[in-house]
Each structure stands twice: as structure tokens, then as C-alpha cells.
Design goal:
It contains 19 helices and twelve strands. The chain is an alpha/beta fold. It folds into three domains: 67 residues, no CATH class; 134 residues, Leucine Dehydrogenase, chain A, domain 1 (Rossmann fold, 3-Layer(aba) Sandwich), CATH 3.40.50.10860; 163 residues, NAD(P)-binding Rossmann-like Domain (Rossmann fold, 3-Layer(aba) Sandwich), CATH 3.40.50. The strands form two sheets. The chain has a seven-stranded mixed beta sheet with strand order 9-8-7-6-10-11-12, sandwiched between helices. Helix 2 runs antiparallel to helix 3, helix 3 packs parallel to helix 7 and helix 10 crosses helix 17.
Length: 462
């Protein structure tokens, strides 16, 4: 059966939440009523686990496996005072959620953005647990960050904030305990400041304590591109299953940060036409696709917090569409790379109307549950974020290995390892999908769940 026809057939039955899963989910909402994003990801994952939960419900109930699975092992909240260039003191809130360490040290990025709150960190750390499991590498799930906004801050202000943040965080992390990395608002520059403070406090050179480092002190050669490259490789596997190729396909990306840059770079290299980039205020449309020069200029505006996508549009004489999202454009493939919940019901209906072939999530949970249902029911192939954007954390784990062994793999070897990991992620997600007659997204959830659940049960009640 053709993958697309098979996929539409799978969805006709619908999904109904089983009693045990419903109990766990309702308990979660009752305990943490304000954490809507966390509720969203927990519901999406729990519902999709029904086939495998039914096989072992008595064992899972007895060991409260799902109750433990949706509860972080540890949440750390702390104040972060810092001084601006005028000598004024500001206080932000710092977070680190160590969600699940059953298969390895906690691993996940740090996000510096005004929207950061505890519920955001829990949602991201929960997603990270299954994503990390899918890589096949020994890493658990975690996430952290602060409501600090690095935009329009001087280098001195960013450095002082990072040093203050690490002054508390250092006591909770380590190469075999918890290994943060970069995320939204945290580039190699911030990682450098964070590691510098860690080294000063600890007095030892543990460069495996943080990943996404600059090349000069242990960073991997393809780490900056890894998430975007990984998305592209996953997308290739989806297209291959459909008897298609990425060459010549028109692709709409959102965002213009690290994920979008890596995706644009690899997609352009493979002959695809990337026709949009976006920011919160609007998007640009590039009808003929991006060139290598345009891809490279993304790094220029990302490095200068005073510049926006409007400066990019002006430089290359592109149309800037104010106040709208790029999903209104008829394209072959949509890859949302900006942030969570950027594709809502309204956008999903437009995507269906435009007869898009594939929606492949680049950011963490960029589609709401309702939007995902609309997209899948229309027969549009859907690539879930916890599978498709696992390339970044996969290369971060490889960076940890390099740091431990005091070695430095070349770019070709690292890219080959990344490509193989993404192929394997697609393979196991697809196998679970076919086994239970469910969607690719549900298959990815089950594939990620199996390894973590087995480790938790074998290690006893913890």
C-alpha cells in the first residue's frame, strides 16, 4: 500500500483515550492547572501510547509508570541578578528541569526568551526525553533557561547575565549528571560565557559539561547546522517512502535562527527551493528560492541583535509581508522552525486548502493538537518534531563523546553519523506506525517510550 494511502486509512478509526491514560492525564492537569503547554504535549504523547499500554497495563499501573513518566525527577528554579551597562541591577528567573535520567545524564538546551516559564520548561524537557531516546544514544531528558531577553543587550550585559545564571546552575550539572546546550536565544557566544564561568567556579576543565561550544574548546564541526541538517535527512526519508525526491520541491520555512539556517543550507544544497523565512512581525517571500549567499547572510543578521528580517528583505530586495505567517503560500512542503504552537487551526485549514504534500516539524511542537489532526485527516504526511528535529541533540551527544575521548571527528564523519541516526529514527518510528496501524507521529512516541519505560522498570521505583 502506498504510504500516503496507508496513512489516510490509518486515521479513519480515530483515537479514544483509555481509562488509565485518562486518569494520569487528569491528575496531571489537576496538579499543574496553569501549565497549558505541558498539558498539550502530555496529552499528545499519552494518547498515542494506548496500543503499547494495553499490552502491559497491569505492570504499568502497579509501578505507576505513567505517573512517574509525566512527573519531572527534579525542577530547579532560582533568581538571576545581573548588572546592565548603566550600573542598574535586574533580576530574572532561571530554570532547569531534569525530567528523566533513566537512560543517561539529563540532556537538553537552555532557552533565553521572555516567554520562558516553568510550564514551558517542563513541556520542552518532557518532549526532550522521548526525542533523546529516539536517537539511540544514552542521554536522558532535560531543559532549562530564563525569561531574560538577549535582544538589544550589549555583549557585556549578556556576559554578566550568563555568569550570574551559571553561578547557580553549576551545582546542578556535570558531564555525567546534566549536560545543557544552546536553544532559542543561546548561541555559541552565550555557551562560551556559560562555560567560562563554570570553569572558573569549578577550577577544572570539564568541557563535556555543555555542548554547542565554539570549535576552539571542544565544539563539534557540524553542531550549529545539526538540527536543520537532521530535519532535512528525516524529510528525505519521508519523501523516499512516497517515491519522491527533495530536489525541485518548494519549501516554506519559518524563523531565521539556527534551525531554519541549517535546514535552508542543506535543503538548498540538495536542490530544493526555500521560499520563505519569518519572524514574529511577518515573513519574506523568495519566489525563486534561496542562494548560498542568502543562506550565509542569515548568520549576519543572527549575530547582530539590532538587525531583523526586514534588513534581510531590504538587502536582497524581497517582499516583506507584515503581520502574517508564511503558511498562506502554496508550497510542496512546510517546515515550521520558529517556536511552539505557530500553526493553529486557521493555518492548518489554509495548508490543507493549498494541497501541501508534507508538514515536517522543525521547532518543538510548532503545531497544536487540533492543527495536527486537521493536517493528518487531510492525508498530508506529518513529520513529528521529537523525531524530525532530533539531529541537534544527536550531534550534541556525539560532542560529549568527543570531549570524553579527547578526539575531534572531521565534518564528513560527523555528518555521516548524523545521517545514519536520522535514518534510524525514521525507521523505528515507521515500524511502530505500521505495527499498530497508527500515524508516524504516534509511532515515534511509542518508539521513544519503549526504551525509557524499560529502563525505568528495570531500575526499580525511582
Amino acid at each position: 500500500m502506498n504510504i500516503l494511502k496507508e496513512f489516510v486509512f490509518i486515521l479513519e478509526g480515530g483515537v479514544k483515550m483509555m481509562k488509565y491514560i485518562e486518569e494520569v492525564y487528569n491528575g496531571l492537569v489537576e496538579r499543574f492547572p496553569e501549565e497549558k503547554e505541558f498539558h498539550q504535549t502530555a496529552k499528545e504523547v499519552l494518547e498515542s501510547l494506548e496500543p503499547v499500554i494495553k499490552e502491559n497495563e497491569e505492570l504499568y499501573r502497579k509501578n505507576a509508570l505513567l505517573e512517574r513518566m509525566v512527573t519531572p525527577e527534579r525542577t530547579i528554579v532560582f533568581r538571576v541578578p545581573w548588572e546592565d551597562d548603566n550600573g542598574n541591577i535586574h533580576v530574572n528567573t532561571g530554570y532547569r528541569v531534569q525530567f528523566n535520567g533513566a537512560i543517561g545524564p539529563y540532556k537538553g538546551g537552555l532557552r533565553f526568551h521572555p516567554s520562558v516559564k516553568l510550564g514551558t520548561m517542563k513541556f520542552l524537557a518532557f518532549e526532550q526525553t522521548f526525542k533523546n531516546s529516539l536517537t539511540g544514544l544514552p542521554i536522558g531528558g532535560g531543559k532549562g533557561g530564563s525569561d531574560f531577553n538577549p535582544m538589544k543587550k550589549s555583549d557585556g550585559e549578556i556576559r554578566r547575565f550568563c555568569e550570574s545564571y551559571m553561578t547557580e546552575l553549576y551545582r546542578h550539572i556535570g558531564p555525567d549528571t546534566d549536560v545543557p546546550a544552546g536553544d532559542l536565544g543561546v548561541s555559541a557566544k552565550e555557551i562560551g560565557y556559560l562555560f567560562g564561568q563554570y570553569r572558573r567556579i569549578k577550577g577544572i576543565y570539564e568541557n563535556g559539561v555543555i555542548t554547542g561550544k565554539p570549535r576552539s574548546f571542544g565544539g563539534s564541526k557540524v553542531r550549529p547546522e545539526a538540527t536543520g541538517y537532521g530535519i532535512t535527512y528525516f524529510l528525505q526519508e519521508m519523501l523516499t517512502d512516497m517515491g519522491q525526491d527533495i530536489k525541485g520541491k518548494t519549501i516554506a520555512l519559518s524563523g531565521y535562527g539556527n534551525v531554519a539556517w541549517g535546514a535552508a543550507k542543506k535543503m538548498t544544497e540538495l536542490g530544493a527551493k526555500v521560499v520563505t523565512l519569518s519572524e514574529a512581525e511577518g515573513y519574506i517571500y523568495m519566489p525563486d528560492g534561496m542562494t548560498d549567499e542568502m543562506v550565509d547572510y542569515m548568520l549576519v543578521i543572527r549575530a547582530d541583535y539590532s538587525k531583523t528580517l526586514k534588513d534581510y528583505a531590504k538587502k536582497f530586495n524581497f517582499e516583506y509581508i507584515d503581520g502574517k505567517k508564511p503558511w498562506e503560500r502554496p508550497v510542496d512542503i512546510i517546515v515550521p522552525c520558529a517556536t511552539q504552537n505557530e500553526i493553529l487551526t486557521e493555518e492548518a485549514n489554509v495548508i490543507v486548502k493549498n494541497k501541501v504534500m508534507i508538514v515536517c516539524e522543525g521547532a518543538n511542537m510548532p503545531c497544536t493538537i487540533e492543527a495536527t489532526e486537521i493536517i493528518e485527516k487531510a492525508g498530508i504526511l506529518f513529520g513529528p518534531s521529537k523525531a524530525a528535529n532530533a539531529g541537534g541533540v544527536a550531534v550534541s551527544a556525539l560532542e560529549m563523546s568527543q570531549n570524553s575521548e579527547r578526539i575531534d571527528w572531521d565534518e564528513e564523519e560527523l555528518e555521516k553519523k548524523l545521517h545514519n541516526i536520522m535514518k534510524d529514527i525514521y525507521k523505528v518510528s515507521r515500524e511502530e506506525s505500521k505495527k499498530y496501524g497508527i500515524s508516524l507521529a504516534q509511532g515515534a512516541n511509542i518508539a521513544g517510550f519503549r526504551k525509557v519505560a524499560d529502563a525505568m522498570l528495570r531500575q526499580g521505583i525511582y
